[in-house]
Model the fold of this input.
Amino acid sequence: MQLKKVVLAYSGGLDTSVIIPWLKENYGCEVICFVADVGQEEELEGLEERALKAGASKLYIRDLTQEFVNDFIFPTLKAGAIYEEYLLGTSFARPLIAKNLVEIAHQEGADAIAHGATGKGNDQVRFEVTIHALDPELKVIAPWRIWDLRSREDEITYAQAKGIDVPVKKDRPYSIDRNIWHVSHEGADLEDPANPPQDDIYQMITPPEKAPDKPTFVEIGFEQGIPKTIDGKEYDGVALLRTLNKIAGENGVGILDIVENRLVGMKSRGVYETPGGTVLYKAHRSLESLTLDRDTMHFKSLVAQRYAELVYDGLWYSPLREALDAFVNATQKTVTGTVKVKLYKGNCMPVAIESPYSLYHRGIASFGYSELYDHKDAAGFINLFSLPLKVRGLMRKKAEEKA
Done:
């Protein structure tokens, strides 16, 4: 394959640092790196120098944090989408990154896009499905599927031979993905589900047993399903999430250690830190319990599962995901109000909910007398509700008598 320019999704980590010289060696092409700032903060320092030293001709850095929060995180939150307990932190960042890779490839007149996702992971699918959707003619290079390097240890040896400094050591070569929503940890000793995660891996969260001995209460205000305030103070999406990450992280909230079913067919073990996101999901769900009717809430649970699968599988730019958004947005018109949450040593418990659209009527729900509810009405309701089962029971009894 003859290539002149390749745009590489670059993070500065082990995989993508090694890919730069590998692309130049194998394709003789110019390598242009792209870094998406999706809230990883300090990890961006020194990336340009590192990329150029590894052989890239230039580095693009785009601050996508606001777009990430408003156009990817909050729609997923409103949907209530959760994949096997996982709050999709890596999943919905990839389509946004891939979209910008395509834009830069067009701007630079590149022949192809390269990424550092492994041949066993979900990210290869998420990147490439998005690229194919937005520009079917762009070539995609996935080095992990074609090169001779078989492990992260091999990559470290290759990097050292090329004089490339990478922020990974052979004794603890974790694969880490960080953005404003979460930090994920995979690989090394975590590959054995029998090994508990070590406390020193956490970057956003204080281990629960080391969290404060007194609970912290925080009140989240929502408008049509979107979080807007913390303790009555209004924030934009990015500032709100960063503030909540700090509060929840200090209280040990948001650690998830699971074995999940990957799209590519295998099980994998991951440890996730999602402090602010955990609080938002629980608060949002709690507010919906007050403001959504029974049928809508139950059907929305089905939509949430399908939405989560689409996001996890990299199908963000699919017609179905866009159509489901229309349903979700309709359900969120009354999801406005406040939720007070208690945070204590890893626990996150909604303790108070208020909304001008509350469907909870104390006069009806109370065990006391109410003019709006006559207890005698329940008898007729039960008779009608149970009628099919009553008829079936009579039929069965009649059949048994004949036997």
Remarks:
- The chain has 13 helices and 14 strands.
- The longest helix spans residues 294-312.
